[in-house]
Amino acid sequence: MKKFGIAIHGGAGVMSRRLMTDDKEKKYTRALSEALKAGHEILKEGGTALDAVTVAVCSLEDQEMFNAGRGAVFNHEGRHEMDASIMNGANLMAGAVSAVHNIRNPVLLAREVMLHSEHVMMCGQGAEEFARERQLVFEDDTYFFTRHRFEQWQRALKKELMQLDDGSTKKFGTVGAVALDAEGNLAAATSTGGLTNKRFGRIGDSPIIGAGTYANNETCAVSCTGHGEYFIRSVVAFDIHALMLYKKWSLKQASEKVVMKKLVKMKAEGGIIAIDRKGNICMPFNSEGMYRGMWSGTGKPEIMIY
Ligand code: ASP
Q1: Ligand 1 nearest-atom number relative to CA 193
Q2: Which of 28, 38, 4, 57 is nearest to 207 (CA)?
Q3: pTM of the full predicted structure?
């Protein structure tokens, strides 16, 4: 069997060790491990990178501590407006949804758009109607209500701020996964609730192919987390691919140039996870921490925060 591997993230930001309790750290580590294991299992059994990233992102969307699916933040209107995307590096097919409500797993809807529509991106009501046609699971608002997100939103409302997930710790919580399967195919997926107290209709980088997500068998698969507006303007995921393709840079050179030099120069905070066609994994971030995990082939899983 050829080399395979997977990497996941649960968002980047300022994760102060001072504010992190043992309990909290265990909770995050457990959730990341579960998602990593679910994706790795698929690859180990000879499944596709596309299925591996789908399953890993669904698992993270189902956890209330990440800003995606169940744990999605509140927008200015007090709603959960979610974005997600997925891309198959084997055929450059992609699917994305933005500003969708009440969908349990937005990444599954992005996948449906890719596989069962003639489009790449659908938003709002139209995407929700398509979700009904495809019989995706909807949840009512109570499913997405979490006390700490509500309090974050209330704090942000008071300060009239648009916050990056959590103003007190400046933590992003978007989730994503990238994988290489034994057939040599790459895939990437990203899912988010966006920014706390964002204007309704605001769309970040996560559902934008080339900005928050990109996969191409010729180079790499990338999923981003950070301040979306900057990531869109920097076309982050595609830029890493392009540096590898046109300049023949390694994944490490390309991803570090983009995250540690270009984004830093713009004062844009965040990070990325990426895997190349040889199975090399890079996870640079320019913030204090990034919830992340990787599992290469038959090696051991690794979970890291700082
Ligand atoms: N990139 C996401 C956005 O701007 C936020 C995040 O990574 O947490 O919507």
Answers
A1: 9
A2: 57
A3: 0.95
pLDDT in tens, 97-152: 999 999 999 999 999 999 999 999 999 999 999 999 999 999 999 999 989 899 88
CATH class entry, domain 5-304: alpha beta
- Ligand 1 test: best mutation among 206, 231, 259, 285, most atoms within 8 Å of CB? 206
- How far does residue 97's CA lie from ligand 1's centre (Å)? 14
- The tens digit of pLDDT for each residue in 31-81 reads 999 999 999 999 999 999 999 999 999 999 999 999 999 999 999 999 999
Average pLDDT, the chain: 93
Q: Give residue limits of the domains in the chain.
A: 5-304
Closest to 245 in 3D by CA, of 289, 223, 215: 215
How many whole angstroms separate alpha carbon 300 and alpha carbon 296?
7
Q: Residues with beta carbon inside 6 Å of ligand 1?
A: 11, 67, 165, 172-174, 192, 194-195, 204-206, 225-228
Distance (angstroms) between ligand 1 centre and the Cα of 74 equals 13
Q: Are strands 289-296 and 93-100 parallel, antiparallel or unpaired?
A: unpaired
At 10, list the tokens: 């649960």
